[in-house]
Amino acid sequence: MEFLRPLVSFLAKIFTPKGAQRRYVLLVVLLVLVVFLGTYNWAKPWNVFATKFNNAIKVDLLGKYSPKDFSLGLDLYGGTHLVYQADVTNIADKERDSALSGVRDVIERRVNLFGVSEPNVQIDKVGGDYRLIVDLAGVTDINQAVQLIGETPYLDFRIEKPGGATTTADFLATKLNGKNLKKATLSFDQTTYKPQVDLQFDSEGAKLFAEITKANLGKRVGIFLDGAPISIPVVQSEITGGNAQITGSFTSDEAKLLVKRLNAGALPVAIKLISQQNIAAQLGGVSLAKSLKAGLYGFLAVIIFMILLYRFSGILASLALFVYAVIVLAIFKFIPVTLTLSGIAGFVMTIGIAVDANVLVFERMREESKNGKSLMASLEDGFSRAWPSIRDSNISTLITSGILFWFGSSIIRGFALTLAVGIVVSMFSAMVITRLLMRVFINTRLSKCISFWIR
């Protein structure tokens, strides 16, 4: 943990008291920051107040914010719930899990391209059937949601059956499909000037394509999109380098659309929509209201606990906790973080973590004061000696959050992100803001009664 020592030393140097003037300047800066972030968080009521104030003095003194709401997830904002059946009949049993994982990744990437916030894509196995569950927050038009997923093509390459092919049904599937596609680009034939789509495969796809063309010289190899043939050329020679072309009687606009669809992600497994459902935003509104109410009650309970147990120090810690909440919400809105019920749970959890840091500091201050030290000395030693415990516990939680974010699904990532942001800000709140507030008041008349600060 030595890498944090320079940062701690830097912060300690900045906030080491060298006179009341500097502390008051820092306090003013903190107040300005809170006002700025608070008005950013609640832009709509601030804009109403600013408009009335400017009209009253007939001068545009107060600025306004462009309204920007917090980004809410499917469970709070409403959206669309889709269930797809995956066709895995042509995929070996041991490869099915990885193939479905590829489908999930492709769909998440595709809906993100269309601006859908925090899609929740899950794989569900029912008996021998594989299903894909897709939740899209904010998309209440089912046709639009189906279009987002349905436009993603399933690309595969097929070879002739022994004895020659007479129809498109006489083709055999190969292992080369859309999951091996690296890039698709639009080009034009140098002779006919007709549009064509150039395909570039990854290393595995290049190897498979070379093997297919070598084994099928003089035969036809079919390129199929969503089960329909779009090009069935005759192989003239072995093709290495991992490049192929799709030619046909399509227009430039059709070729551009095909390139866009392929680059957005070609599914390694064909899927079919079997269920669709709208999730009403009203239900999300009820859940959000209950969550905010529970969070507010918890916040108030923590403040009451801190004040009763630690007196004036608890009041200052509660003020720091309020600043913490304002900063975290501003970060959530600025990134923006898509808030789900689990994400809000992560935020509420960090309130307790922020309070826990203050508890460690105050208990250490109490021990130092019992040893006969002055209030200022107890304050300084309390913060410095409580820091290792606060640092180690929070870093452990940050590591856990990183693991959850890296390996978890969309909902788990939302929880991990809000938890990590809250932890970082909570350390700043406890070790910097609370200390600054205590240093501002500790040289006043209030410091004469040490029991007023800590019991």
Describe what you observe in this structure.
The model has no long low-confidence stretch (mean pLDDT 80). The longest helix is centred in the last third of the chain and has 54 residues, at 281-334. The protein has helices at residues 5-14, 20-41, 43-57, 74-77, 96-113, 142-150, 203-215, 252-264, 281-334, 341-370, 375-407, 410-442, and strands at residues 79-87, 120-126, 129-137, 155-160, 171-177, 181-188, 195-201, 221-225, 228-231, 243-246, 270-279. The protein contains 12 helices and 11 strands. The protein is α+β, with helices and mostly antiparallel strands and 455 residues long. It has 3 domains: 2-42 and 284-452, Multidrug efflux transporter AcrB transmembrane fold, CATH 1.20.1640.10; 79-152 and 267-279, 2-Layer Sandwich (Alpha-Beta Plaits); 157-249, 2-Layer Sandwich (Gyrase A, domain 2).
List the helices and strands and how they pair.
Blueprint: H1 5-14, H2 20-41, H3 43-57, H4 74-77, E1 79-87, H5 96-113, E2 120-126, E3 129-137, H6 142-150, E4 155-160, E5 171-177, E6 181-188, E7 195-201, H7 203-215, E8 221-225, E9 228-231, E10 243-246, H8 252-264, E11 270-279, H9 281-334, H10 341-370, H11 375-407, H12 410-442
Antiparallel strand pairs: 1-3, 1-11, 2-3, 4-5, 4-8, 6-7, 7-10, 8-9
Strand content: 15-25%
Please report the first level of CATH classification, the CATH class of the largest domain. Mainly Alpha
Major sheet strand order: 2-3-1-11
What's the average pLDDT? 80
